[in-house]
Every structure is written in structure tokens, then in C-alpha cells.
Amino acid sequence: MLNKNxxxxxxxxxxxxxxxxxxxxxxxxxxxxxxxQTHSIIKYGIDxxxxxxxxxxxxxxCPVCVTPLAYIDKAxxxxxxxxxxxxxxxxxxxxxxxxLDLLSLKARGADIxxxxxxxDALKIAQNNPEREVVFFxxxxxxxxxxxxxxxxxxxxxxxxxxxxxxxxxxxxxxxRALLESPHNQVQGFLAAGHVCAVMGYQEYLPIAAAYRxxxxxxxxxxxxxxxxxxxxxxxxxxxxxxxxxAYSRVVREHxxxxxxxxxxxxxxxxxxxxxxLGEIAQSGLSLAPEFADWNAELKFKIATIDSxxxxxxxxxxxxxxxxxPPQCAEFGTTCTPEHPFGxxxxxxxxxxxxxxxxxxx
Length: 361
Prior knowledge:
The protein is of the alpha/beta class. The protein has one domain: 3-Layer(aba) Sandwich (Rossmann fold). The protein has helices spanning 10-23, 35-43, 46-49, 63-66, 69-79, 102-107, 118-127, 144-157, 171-180, 193-199, 205-211, 222-238, 257-266, 296-299, 315-319, 351-359; strands spanning 28-32, 54-58, 84-88, 112-114, 132-139, 162-169, 188-192, 215-218, 243-245, 267-274, 278-287. Helix 1 runs parallel beside helix 12 (222-238), helix 2 (35-43) packs parallel to helix 16 and helix 8 packs across helix 13 (257-266). The longest helix has 17 residues, at 222-238. It is globular, with a radius of gyration of 21 Å.
């Protein structure tokens, strides 16, 4: 069994920091794609320990944060209906919609339940055949396989009082969009290890080749992150732009084929809006036509709901790495975890939440 503390070892961390300093001769800007990595970087002060020439910027790696406002409003419209039991992971309940959030709606009497697995929602549907049970399925490729499995099970059981409000998104298209942006600052990526555990890293090879940018698959502990930074800087300093796996204890080249097969059975790829970032081509996963009976957008006729993003929230700039949370005038004053403008302040993986928790003072 691996010792988790080994990946937080201060001696190893100091050696890696020294190694990074020794090879760094130029200014480089790296982006970590995962919100979990962002929290580790801020919690352990990794960014402040690096050489001044190395700048870390935070990417759109929080699935709760990038769920568009329209889908929050769709969730609220469904959950407000009296015959519905609405199931969601806890992070989604505080994300603000146009008027309120799911937690406020629950306080007003809506039957909204926090669950820890999509299968929990399926069991609730089986135990409440007279009610409509809806699961709010969000996340990257990491959580999409569990949504796919529950959809397949619902179809096998012909469980018609169960449906999915599916808003899954994929990482490679947003990486391409960031690199093609006229405001792009990214010179190297730390790729999200848990996404690659499912999908592998083959799909990053054409991105590294086309955009001449190194991509290093990275874990979440301090030693993991420092190792990823070291390998990324080493590539940049030597003029290489390749995909490397610095998280080999978890990630394999081709990922998890069984999980990928389940996703292919259930989802189709669609254009998807990302909160604060706009529409990204072929970046979303929607239920395939064969699963129309379990598609909550169709069942509740709310597919046309479209909500404009609030102008006061600068989360889109935070998610692109254009600003850091304290550079927003609302951060920590009018925008707090208790009264958030956007999801980046309430999600457990949000960059604004990380700065508020660890660096507010």
C-alpha cells in the first residue's frame, strides 16, 4: 500500500524545488487544469516557493464552477415541482442561479437530497415509484462513467420515474480553446490526473503537437505537483513539447477502457456553454437519443431555458487564468462563500474558495 504522507514529504519537496530552481533560466507560465490541484497549490503555498520566473495560473478545472447558469436554472425549475425528488452532490446546492440556489429552494420546502453516488438516486426512484426522481449529473470525464452506468441500469430496469439532468464536460476541448484564445498565456499544462485515469493521455498528444505546448499528467499532493512542474519546465527549457505521465501510479496510457465503453454507450458529444467562458465546440456530453426517456431536459420540457451570465462576476477571467481571485474587486467583500456571486467561491474546488480559505488575510 502506498503511503500518502510520502507525497507530502518536506524533504522530497525541497529537493524538487531545488531541482526546479536549478533548471529554470527563463520565465514560464504554467496552468494546472484541475481545481483539486489549485487547492493543493494554494493550501501548501507551492506557488510562493517556486522560482520567481515560474508563474502558475489556474484553469477551468472545477466542474461545479464551469456548469453554466442555464443548467442551474434548469435544475431549479425541475426541483421546484412538487412531485419531484431532486438529487445532487452537495457542492451544487450553493451555486447561485439567476434568482436563488438549490439550498434556498430546499429551505422553502422542495424535496432536494444530497447524495454521494448516482446509484443512491436510482435507489430513491425504486423506493418512491409515485414520485419523479432526478439526478443532477455534472463533472468532467472523471464522473461521467458513473452517470453512464446509472443510465444503463435505469434502462435495464425500465425505471421510468428516474431521469438525469446531464451536464458533463470534457477537458481536451477547453484546453484547445484556451490555447487558441488571443489572451492565451499558457506555455505548459499540468493535466488532471483523475481525468487521465479514466481517459488515458492519448487524446493530449495532438494538442501538444499542434500547439507546441508540453502537457504533464499530474497528481494532487505537493510532491506530485512539484514533480509535474519540474517535468514541464524541463521540457520548456530544452525545447521539447511532449505529453509525459508524472502520475504513473494511477494513470495508464489508454486509461480505463471499461469506463470509456460505458460513456460511449450513453453519451453523444455536443457543443456546451461553460460558465463564464461561453460555448466550446464539442466539449459537452449529452444523453444519446436511445436514452431520451431518461433525459430530464426532455421530460420536464426545460431544454429551452437560457440564462445570461451575471456581469458582476469575473469568474470567467479566473477560470481562464487571466486574473487571480484577489484581483476581482468583489472578492472577499461583496462576494464571499456565504453570499457568492459565482460558483468559484462556493465549490470545494473553486479557485476563489481556495484563496478565500487559505489567503484571505
